[in-house]
Amino acid sequence: MPLVLLIVNQLLAGVGVASGVAVGGLLAERLTGTVAMAGFAQTSAVLGAGLVAIPLARLATRVGRHWALAAGYALALAGTLLIFVASATGIIAILFIGLGAFGAASAAGLQSRFAATEVASKGYEARSMSVVLWATTLGSVAGPNLSQVGSDLGESLGIEPLAGPFIFSGVAFALASLLAAALLRTPPAGQLAGDTEPVASVGLGQALRIALGQPRAVFAMVAIICSQTVMVGVMVMTPVHMFHHGLSLTLVGLVISVHILGMYGASPVMGWLADRIGAGRVIAVGVGILGLAVAIGAMLAPDDMIGIPLALGLLGLGWSAGMIGGSTLLTRTVEQRVRVPLQGATDAAMNLGAAASAAASGLVLGWGGFAAVNGVAALVLVPVVVLGLRAWTVSRRARRVSDTADTSV
To answer: Helical H runs in 91-193?
Structure first.
């Protein structure tokens, strides 16, 4: 039952986040008149997600994941209301604050993936995580396609048309928060199904020190951070790039839907692969797909309505592999007392890195175009490759030592 409720919760959250993300940058550009602000608007949302990730993890430790999820969606609802105020007054500072609070929905949604591993049977953690992420597909694909409907609704209500889609966001976040608070119940945060020891999480600093001594844990953390950073940096500038070249909101919504379908639609496959062939190999697959996505994106014509959806779909698919592989590897590599603070710290770093990427991508788009945005994204993949090779080398050396010891005995 908890897994079913998590799935429904993710579906609602998917509608809420995707309805706003497709037009948030465009609304900022409309209010300020500058393309750079489109990137900074998305930065606010991603930065907000990063800032609340650790407090939500601490709340989960104290009172349970379900209360942390409810709090995250409630904060996102408050952010949506501030966005309406900003669109009515034209005060850009209020818009950025509202988008920052809006980002709490992303933080809560990402925390749901760890909640899924905690209610899963042993050995099925990755598959349970992937099913919860897959549930986001329905809402997230529908959300961007509500852009034109929301715009028309906003105009009919006398508000800024680009703020209209946030009406759907507000309703979805309200329902998600109520569902998590009233019905959802989860085990103590950080405790997997089958764990018998009570949760006694260490502090954040100690958790990081422990993790930094484990190459596989570092590899997992960097894979999560870089996958999110690459995905956000390219994704947030795609609607702006398309809009500037005369493509409609309907086409923008279609491309974002394809991208989100790539992010979540194949997640059960990624979860199954992580359980069967290993999380590290799934991360490697993700890096390869992300590399292919940014290579295609760098060569596209602005109005290529075959290439743009293809590149954005692959971008989402690579993110799925990196996120599920990295999250599974992190959960399985570190001991129980380290899980929750390390998960919170990783999500915070992931969103802060993505915030920096979103902010920079607006400047890069203005300087070198969409090809430059994709080129910079490719460079972000380099640390994942380097640390992956390091983790593989250390693991291989450890196996050789173990095999030698077994032979000598």
So the answer is: 92-102, 104-118, 125-142, 147-156, 166-182
